[in-house]
Write a structure and sequence with these properties.
This protein is α+β, with helices and mostly antiparallel strands. The chain has six helices and seven strands, in the order βαααβββαβαβαβ. Bound molecules: coenzyme A (COA).
């Protein structure tokens, strides 16, 4: 089966909504509000909502990437904001494919490093990221990076 990453489009709305991510999440990151358009035109934020699709155009998973300008460091930073595989496809290697395809997509965009935040007790996600060589950042180093996080989150980084 050939799998590919495709950009989110309105026609996938129902599938993504019902099987992958909650409505709240979906609206926040996919609707193009005026506020978001302004941020994008100022090159402060760009969101990339990508879907993993198979030959039958089934949406198996999604990932949200965000490119943002850190005003303090004056540097562009990339974050993975959400990864999900549809429950019926979990545990079959698709999460791994989604991460690998995303890393290739980032390489094409000449991205050098990606950060992500993950709940400390989310073992499936933690294992998936570790398997793909994301390294946990030490807590005392996070202040210098100025990455906001909830106490229940850890921050991971992959450099390539
Ligand atoms: C995390 C998630 C995306 C993994 O997707 P998946 O398709 O089931 O993962 P894969 O089958 O590709 O497994 C890849 C690796 O993830 C880890 N993993 C996956 N499921 C796991 C589980 N139930 N328990 C522990 N580790 C697990 C393993 O390291 C696995 O590698 P292995 O098979 O060599 O052991 C999926 O569980 C999911 O959608 N979870 C809900 C959303 C979520 O929590 N997202 C993360 C937000 S940061």
């Amino acid at each position: 089966m050939k799998l590919k990453l495709i950009k989110y489009h309105e026609s996938y709305r129902d599938q993504v909504f019902s099987e992958l991510v909650p409505q709240k999440y979906f609206i926040k990151y996919t609707t193009k509000s005026l506020f978001y358009k302004i941020l994008k035109s100022l090159k402060i934020y760009s969101n990339y909502f990508l879907l993993l699709s198979n030959d039958n155009n089934d949406i198996m998973g999604c990932i949200l990437l965000r490119k943002k300008l850190s005003p303090i460091k004056m540097k562009i930073e990339w974050f993975i904001y959400g990864v999900a595989i549809s429950t019926k496809y979990r545990g079959q290697g698709y999460g791994n494919i989604l991460i690998n395809e995303t890393i290739n997509w980032c390489r094409e965009k000449k991205v050098k490093e990606i950060f992500l935040l993950v709940e400390k007790d989310n073992n499936p996600a933690l294992n998936l990221y570790k398997k793909n060589e994301f390294k946990t950042l030490p807590l005392d180093g996070l202040k210098a990076l100025r990455i906001k996080r909830k106490k229940s989150n850890i921050v991971m980084l992959k450099q390539f």
